[in-house]
Structures are given as structure tokens and as C-alpha cells.
Automatic annotation (TrEMBL):
NIF system FeS cluster assembly NifU N-terminal domain residues: 4-124
Organism the protein comes from: Emergencia timonensis
Protein name: Fe-S cluster assembly scaffold protein NifU
GO biological process, one term: iron-sulfur cluster assembly
InterPro entries in UniProt: NIF_FeS_clus_asmbl_NifU-like, NIF_FeS_clus_asmbl_NifU_N
Originating gene: nifU
Top-rank lineage group of the source organism: Bacteria
GO molecular function: iron ion binding; iron-sulfur cluster binding
């Protein structure tokens, strides 16, 4: 029954890494142009490795599950590895999302990149994975859309 698999339901009902970080090294916020839902992701970085991440999502269950999974995926990863994570991979780790909910995973993908962008700006760093990234751009370029 239902639209959502057990992994999605688990991350929705028991989301990991909810809340705020004390003195975050980077904060990214993104609002979906599709539905208006909002997500904030904060990161702690040491020696170019993401040591902690937290999120707050004002959005649907799929957005909560996506941000829970996304923060779990980036903790312990290098910035470059985290930047390489696509919304498609978040969906794969969740075991799939319904097609109409794909944009919810884009929120998590974009919020991670925004948090890293903020960190990079504050620390004068550049990363290849951020080339061309604009935290304020609307996600209307379709590059993240995947076909079911
Ligand atoms: Fe918009 Fe899920 S419906 S983030």
C-alpha cells in the first residue's frame, strides 16, 4: 500500500540530523520554485571533510526524508565527495520516490550545495563541484529531473 517505501517512511517518521548546529561553518537555505517548501542545511567542516550536518525542513514528507538521507550521506565525506552527490543518488538511497516527488530531493541536493557555497565564500575557497552554481537561481534548468 501507499506511495512510499519503508526507507522513505523511516526517514520521515524518524528523521536523522534534525535541528541547528552551534557555530555552523556553512548554512544553505533553499525554497522550491515548484511547491514553495523550504529547507535549511548546516554543516561543520574540518580539513575539507564534513564532520557534522543538520537540517530543518518546512516541507512535505519526501523533503524531510530526503534531507534526513542527504545529511546522513554527507557526514564524513569530503567537500568534493559531497558536491558530487546528486538528487538521483539521494532518491536511490531512499529506495525510490514517486515521480511527482522528485523535486523534493532536489531541495536537499540544492541546500547541500548552498551550505558548501556559504562555507567556500566565508573561507575564500573554490571547489570544482561548485562551478556555475548560483544559490539564488531557480531550479528550473531541468538538469536534476529524472524520468521514472
Ligand atoms: Fe515540495 Fe515535497 S512537495 S518539497
Amino acid at each position: 500500500m501507499g506511495l512510499y517505501n519503508d526507507t522513505v517512511m523511516d526517514h520521515f517518521m524518524n528523521p536523522r540530523n534534525v535541528g541547528d548546529l552551534e557555530n555552523p561553518d556553512g548554512t544553505g537555505t533553499y525554497g522550491s520554485p515548484v511547491c514553495g517548501d523550504m529547507m535549511q542545511i548546516q554543516i561543520k567542516v574540518k580539513d575539507d571533510v564534513i564532520t557534522d550536518a543538520k537540517f530543518k525542513t518546512f516541507g512535505c514528507g519526501s523533503a524531510i526524508a530526503s534531507s534526513s538521507m542527504a545529511t546522513s550521506m554527507i557526514i564524513g565525506k569530503s567537500i568534493d565527495e559531497a558536491l558530487a552527490i546528486s538528487n538521483k543518488q539521494i532518491i536511490e538511497e531512499l529506495g525510490g520516490l514517486p515521480a511527482v516527488k522528485v523535486h523534493c530531493s532536489v531541495l536537499a541536493d540544492h541546500a547541500i550545495k548552498s551550505a558548501i557555497y556559504d562555507y567556500a565564500q566565508k573561507n575564500g575557497k573554490t571547489y570544482e563541484g561548485l562551478a556555475g552554481f548560483d544559490p539564488d537561481a531557480d531550479e528550473d534548468d531541468h538538469e536534476h529531473i529524472i524520468e521514472e
